[in-house]
Amino acid sequence: MLENNPDLLKLEQECEQAKLDLRDAKAGLGPTVDLQVSGTYMLKPPVEAIYLNVDELLNSIQWPSGIKPLSSGQHVKIYDGMENTLYNFQLSVMQPIFTWGKLHSAVELYALVAEIKETQMMSQQRQIETEMETRLIALNYLKEILKILDEEKEYASKLVETSENAERSGMLLHQDVVEARIQTKELEIAQQDVAEQINNQLLELKRATGVEDLALEKIDYTFAEADLLEILGMEQSLAEEKALSENQLSLIMLTKLKEVNALAEKISKAYVNWKPDVALQMSAGYGGSRIPFVEPNWRRKDAYSANFSVGLKTTVWDGGKKLNDVSRKMSESKVGEVNKIEARSTIRQSLNSQWNAAEVCSMKIEYQDLKIEAADSKIKQQETIFQSGYGSETDVLSAKIERCNHQIEKIRQQLSRATACMVIKHLVGDF
Asked: Which pLDDT score is estimated for 108?
């Protein structure tokens, strides 16, 4: 079950996802570091080589008379032009400074969600264990019913045969024969119904455990009915107190959900208008035609930068959306309180209902015991009359069939009582 149950496997993955969400929330407290690197190769750089005409330079100077040099027509290169490559490196760090407690509250919230998922998984595991044990107990009782039905069918078949013989000799009416055949057919239907119930129990056990080749003959499970009934020896008021204890997993989950709603309300209040978030941003960059530390004289080119910034962001007005969100979270908190009250009421009602059902089943079992005792006495009486030659075998067989019916009804009541006790044990927990 722990390895293959689909419900538990899904919850296990949900627990892992909740843990990852918690890690993300914790990571939000620290800095965010981004690195951006780009490299460009230009077939035709935008800035080409720059040349200076020597004659223009000489003409721009006011020379004394008779000293002005002659024109040479030469050109001097003063800039080689941009290279074909261009690199840019940018490293930025963003660190939240003050967020009105939103980030820390988010960490607490996701931690609670992770705890809720783990508690839910424990609760689901307990529920499936109780369900599996209940189904195994049901299989034991159903197998007993099937044995008694086989015995009863033998009596019914013999009754039909005896009735047909008696009809041929004129001792019975045809109507009595038909009633015997109807009784046999009812037993066949009952056998089929019990076999279907057994098959359904096996299918559910296969789903819960993932054991595909599970068969009735492969199941070796026994239980002591007296141990199961120990729960009914507890005072009902004490059982109710334990079932409604705050240590119960279902109530623990609802309590934590209330705390989650309270934190969600706190976070939404931190987002209202005019509550700014403050963060520090630091960046360092370098841009040039070659990779840093490779380009000659890269320090003198002053192509690097370092910046420190403090940013503030707040919502001035959003039409009241954030205020509505606060009201919404407050409403969800109240709903959480109502859910817990409703859950306690449901647990109390279920416990009382199952307790009463178990007690009624116990009374019905005692009633069937009396009927079985009366049937045993009737069988002995009919056998004595038949052996003395005054009675008929059909009366003996009918009495035995009646006893089988009482035995089957007793087992059905035992199964109902066992199911109720398992539900009570699940609600109460350790007792």
From this structure: 95
Band (pLDDT 50/70/90 cuts) for residue 299 is low
Altogether, the residues listed in the chain come to a count of 431
Q: How far apart are CA 134 and CA 200, in angstroms?
A: 13
Beta-ladder partners of 287: 88
172 phi/psi in degrees, rounded to 5: -135, 155
Tell me the sheet residues that pair with 61: none
Please report, as a single letter, which amino acid is at residue 383: E
pLDDT band at 230 (very low <50, low <70, confident <90, very high): very high
The whole-angstrom separation of Cα 364 and Cα 347 is 26
Distance CA 81, CA 374 (A): 118
Burial category of 260 from C-beta neighbours within 10 Å (exposed 0-12, middle 13-18, buried 19 and up): buried
Residue 189 has pLDDT above 70, yes or no: yes
Q: Which residues contact 393 (CB under 8 A, 6 or more apart)?
A: 162, 386
For 160, the token pair is: 């039909």
pLDDT given at position 176: 79
Q: Mark 261-275 as b/e (b = at least 16 C-beta within 10 Å).
A: bbbbbbbbbbbbeee
Q: What residue type is 235 in one-letter code?
A: E
What confidence category does residue 389 fall into, taking pLDDT thresholds of 50, 70 and 90? Answer: confident
Question: What is the pairing mode between strands 50-53 and 32-41?
Answer: unpaired
The DSSP symbol for 427 reads H
Answer whether 141's CB lies under 8 Å from 418's CB. Answer: yes
How far CA 389 is from CA of 76, 357, 385, in Å, comes to 147, 47, 6
Indicate if the pLDDT at residue 252 is higher than 70: yes
Among left, alpha and beta (phi > 0; psi -120 to 50; other), residue 101 is left
φ, ψ dihedrals at 131, nearest 5°: -65, -45
Task: Say yes or no to pLDDT of 377 above 90.
Answer: yes
d(CA 124, CA 139): 22
> Are residues 158 and 183 in contact, defined by beta-carbon separation less than 8 angstroms?
no
Q: Residue 23: helix, strand or coil by DSSP?
A: helix
State mean pLDDT over 132-147. Answer: 96
Pairing relationship of beta strands 304-313 and 277-288 according to DSSP bridges: antiparallel
Give residue 134's pLDDT.
96
User: Are 394 and 169 contacting, i.e. CB atoms less than 8 angstroms apart?
Assistant: no
Tell me the sheet residues that pair with 52.
Answer: 76
Q: How many Å apart are CA 424 and CA 244, to the nearest integer?
A: 12
